[in-house]
Amino acid sequence: MNIYDGLLLASGGMDSTVLAYKLEKENKNLIILFIDYGQHCEKKEYETLLEVIPLKYKDNVKTIKIGDVYRESNSRMIIEANLWEDTVVAEDMYLPYRNILFISLAAAYAQSMGIKEVYTAFINSNHAKEIDCSMEFFTKLENLLYDYGSIKIKMPFREMTKTEVAKLGIKLGAPIEKTYSCQVNSMTPCGACPNCVDRLTAINNVLGERNNG
User: Fold this and answer.
1) Which residues in the chain land under pLDDT 70?
2) What are the two backbone dihedrals, phi and then psi, of residue 171, each rounded to the nearest 5 degrees?
3) Exposure of 102 in the CB half-sphere (CA atoms within 13 A)
4) In Å, how far are 74, 105, 200 from 147, measured between CA atoms?
5) How far is CA 144 from CA 35, 92, 141, in A?
6) Predicted local confidence at residue 186, as pLDDT
7) 129 contacts: CB under 8 Å, gap ≥ 6
8) Distances, alpha carbon 131 to alpha carbons 67, 72, 134, 138, 166, in Å
9) Tell me, what's the pLDDT at 210?
10) Which of 91, 115, 198, 204 is most buried, taking the most CB atoms under 10 A from its CB?
11) CB distance 41 to 178 below 8 Å
């Protein structure tokens, strides 16, 4: 029977990929949890996750399907936009209680397996519009899940910027150039949604620092 040190919420995006490489370097044995919440880019995200996750963890990837929760949502994270015709703004990507749902699911899954620590890669520059994405909220949720279930929520990047995460990823040898986190297009990153802008800006900042150095 495998003894796991923790569970990592991962999506194939840059932040969770870098965190996976960081935890691998720390010799953590992890469950990698992917959540299918009905997002239009689910297939692309999952394929990317399998491509970028450290080889050590590929057999540890598990999926939870909760698509019914957002079945009636008009969010552009559920209903894919036609970028030739549709104007999409950040508010169009809103999904109610997404973060609390994901973290609570991960905590419940972890506790059912006897795992005490749940890792997430939330950072302080996230432009998500959810009401449950502030540092104050995460701190309260951490305390709640620990007090009523002994699950520790670990957010190693919570005080870091996306650029700092990208820099760490390069140092760790994480394939950040292969990661995917577009909120609008299910095949090719749009380059304009908040996730794409953050990711591209971070990578460009790191490359700029290296060229100037």
Assistant:
1) 1, 124-134, 210-213
2) -60, -35
3) 26
4) 35, 16, 39
5) 22, 30, 5
6) 84
7) 90, 91, 93, 94
8) 20, 19, 7, 11, 26
9) 65
10) 198
11) no
Residue 174: per-residue pLDDT? 97
Query: How far is CA 141 from its chain centroid?
Result: 17
What pLDDT is recorded for position 21? 98
**Contact of 23 with 191, CB cutoff 8 Å:** no
> What confidence score (pLDDT) does residue 124 get?
67
How close are the terminal C-alpha atoms of the chain, in Å? 48
- Find tokens 């990592």 and name the residue: 8
202 Cβ contact partners less than 8 Å away, ≥ 6 residues apart: 14, 161, 162, 163, 165, 166
Q: Measured between alpha carbons, how far is 38 from 71 in angstroms, rounded to an integer? A: 7
What pTM value is reported for the model?
0.89
